[in-house]
Amino acid sequence: MTSGKVTKVLHLQTSLNLTCGITRYLQSLHNNHVDEFHMTVLCYDGDAVENLRENGVDVKLFNSSLTWYYLLSNLLQIIRIVKNSNISIIHSHHRWLDVLGSISAKLCGISSIMTCHSIVSGKKFLSYRSDRIIAVSSAVYTNLTEYFGVNSSRIILLRNGIDPSVYKKDNLSYTGIKNNAIGFVGRLTRDKGFDIFLSIGERILEINSEIKLIIAGDGELKEAISSLSRRYPSQVIYKGVVKNIESVYSEISFLIMPSELDSFPYVVLEAGLFSLVVIASSTGGIPEIIEDGIDGRLIGTRTPDDFFKEVLYVLNNRAVAERWSVNLFKKVSQNFSFSSHARKLESIYKKLNVFK
């Protein structure tokens, strides 16, 4: 039951990509909003634009590219959409778009909010100008207050949730450890630790012919997969960019995340939803999901040797691995409901509108 008045929110994002957690976040938000909220997404490009449109999300594209040269053009387009669509709130998901969003909101006399999805540095003068900032983890909150000097009264801590329906997983049940497949999901870059993953994988393949490495994503280190797959053609499987990421999670039992820094990675929530065993760097917001030795393994040193030892340990100790995976499944399914996240966000929206 709604009050009859619809609050229209314009979300600003750079690109909608299949490998991006923010893309899955926006789809989840669309699926979970009550009728009194309507969302439109304005972005530049991305391989997931049509996918979101097919799933009911109202997606519009910027007419100009993401550069300072087109600042005025982009600003005017946002203002036109606000006026023509009767937008009440601009919600940005990127620092550059926070600049555009906050200026547009002020000129139009409406509210602005930004979700800070990452732990970043630099550009202090231009960053975080919206009326309110949502921090997706305590690690992000600390970065905003201590590095950027954002007043804590403007920051709201709201951790992400996960929506099983986005992954075509309507039946929330623990599936257990299925096989010896070890996975990497995400950007194939050094900051995500893909070089460490390949180092670990090579050493494991040398001593265990039953192991498979399954890799999904794209990035600068993609070519490094080739030499390993030539040596182990039946054990190294590169999926590329996958439209239905649930198909990858259904094939693996162990997820390795040697990230340099991660604010509050969707991949860990997804791993929990799919009953995976997670071995990850103890960095950023990851320890806010994984409790070391209870529902996964956290590694502070981020060296290939330490990751290699822990992967061998869980491969050889299935009882421990099962305990970690079932505990993470329970934690994610019970504590990270996207429906609950959406209700909290809608409450924030309502409070923003009170002051306009």
Number of domains: 2
**What's the CATH H-level superfamily name of the largest domain?**
Glycogen Phosphorylase B
Major β-sheet, in short? 7 strands, parallel
Written as H for each helix and E for each strand, in order along the chain, the element string is: EHEHEHEHEEHEEHEHEHEHEEHHH
Structural class: alpha/beta
Number of DSSP-assigned strands: 13
Task: Name the overall outline.
Answer: globular
- What's the Cα radius of gyration? 21 Å
- Provide the residue-averaged pLDDT: 94
Strand-residue fraction?
15-25%
**What is the rounded distance between the termini?**
24 Å
Please write the CATH class name of the largest domain: Alpha Beta
Helix share, percent: 25-40%
Query: What is the CATH T-level topology of the largest domain?
Result: Rossmann fold
Sheet with most strands: strand arrangement: 3-2-1-4-5-6-7
* Uncertain stretches of 5 or more adjacent residues: none
What CATH architecture of the largest domain would you give?
Answer: 3-Layer(aba) Sandwich
Q: Quickly count the helices.
A: 12
